[in-house]
Amino acid sequence: MNAFEYLTTLPVASVDRLFNDPWACQAVFQSLPSLAQQVVMRLLFSHSPTPLSSLNEWVKPSAIETINLSIEKLCHLRVLSKSGNGQIQLNPNFKAQLKAALSSLGGSPWEEGRKKIKQEKPISAVQLEHYARKRWDSVLHFMVGSTAEEAPPEKVIQILEQTRLMQASQEDRRKLHITDTGYEFMLKDIHAQTWIFILEYIKNIDRSGVMSAEDMLQFLFQMSYCQMHQYYRVEDLSTNQKKLLGDLVQLGLLYRSSNKSDRFYTTSLAVNLIFGGLAGQTRAAIQVSQSLEEYHQSATTNDNAGIHGAHLSIVVETNFKIYAYTSSALHIAMLSVFVDIVTVLPNLAVGFLTRESIRSALIHGISAEQIYHFLMQHAHPRMINNNPVIPENIADQLYLWQRERNRIQFIPGELFDGFVLTDEFNTVVQYAKDLNVLTWSDASQLRLTVTQHGAEAVRKFVQSIRR
């Protein structure tokens, strides 16, 4: 669910309030397919409702189905509304603010406020990116149990639990372990990870009453139009937005040199948060890719590069030995979830797939399929030409270790013994079978077990036949 899909889940009144902001309206318009944008532009300066049938005349017969789908999408986003007599019109708030956005918006939000504070040399995009990735990597390190980075704040840890990316250990309720959902999360693009996390954060602050969901979305829409290498005045933010500064700084979306600083910077995580999941989309995505080209070049040569700046190539041998070529501590921490790491060199980690390491991963909710997918996804180029890429004995053993955990089924129950007569025992066994509560019986030892919920009925039956 991206930001625009989440917008459709909000109440109508909340969407109307969000459409009072021209930046939000521009972002929604920018996210639309080209045909839907054409529909909006044609209706933008219409002063009266338009018959739905007229829209079919705007396109060729072959595109009628496509334009109908576009109209449905616009109605779903509350940009368009249908009346009972088959007419449509733009949301009045959206219409007014989009006009303002297309005719007068330029630059970035809070642009005017920059002139009111003392100028300083902006922080480079590379420095901001290192800062943002370090903040976010602290969350990812915590998820895989690595202590290479400082643990994230308590509020962040709570969201990790609420999103079920982590859960309490069965052995020690005070400790958290990554789940299968969390492991899938680790394999996603950083901007997809950030949005999943921020979506839960939005729901939390909405429930707590700190800020409404539409106000938070407005803040995110505004940040997506900022320049990464420029600073903005804190005083230009609303009271509620100022309350969120600290949290967004901790997550790496914003940078602020101190709590008393009069300015803040937006990082790539904030600028690309809204449009990062939309293919081929917008100037925000273009700005990020251009500004961070230098960062990615430097990250590949940095021994301390994070998971998103370092490369990972894995060689899997038939003897269960793993060679992982990486300079990322986070990659090594991810591997250690299911690999017994024995040697770590500056650009290489060596370990083994063992029954104990795989069993530990399975206990924490990570499946054999996910482990196999991870090994395939990061297979060394020399292994790609192999058929199969991952040795068959390795793949088979992963699934066999997983099935080991399902060989025994535990059914709580009660044991009945002490029978003297075989006929009495057989009668009780048949009665338990009729009730569908019999779990086991041994005719030679005259013993049987029944489920807990059927034990009382069987006990009363035994007493009755003995009278």
UniProtKB/TrEMBL annotation:
Domain Transcription factor Tfb2 C-terminal: 396-463
Subcellular localization(s) per the UniProt record: Nucleus
Cellular component aspect of the GO annotation: transcription factor TFIIH core complex; transcription factor TFIIH holo complex
Keyword field: DNA damage, DNA repair, Nucleus, Transcription, Transcription regulation
InterPro entries in UniProt: Tfb2_C (IPR040662), TFIIH_p52/Tfb2 (IPR004598)
Main location group: nucleus
Gene Ontology molecular function: ATPase activator activity; double-stranded DNA binding
Entries under Pfam families matching the protein: Tfb2 (PF03849), Tfb2_C (PF18307)
UniProt keyword Membrane present: no
GO BP: nucleotide-excision repair
Ranges in coiled-coil conformation: none
Entry-linked PANTHER family: GENERAL TRANSCRIPTION FACTOR IIH SUBUNIT 4, TFIIH, POLYPEPTIDE 4
Family indicated by similarity: Belongs to the TFB2 family.
Function, as annotated: Component of the general transcription and DNA repair factor IIH (TFIIH) core complex which is involved in general and transcription-coupled nucleotide excision repair (NER) of damaged DNA.
Protein name: General transcription factor IIH subunit 4
Lineage, broadest ranks: Eukaryota, Sar, Stramenopiles, Oomycota, Saprolegniomycetes
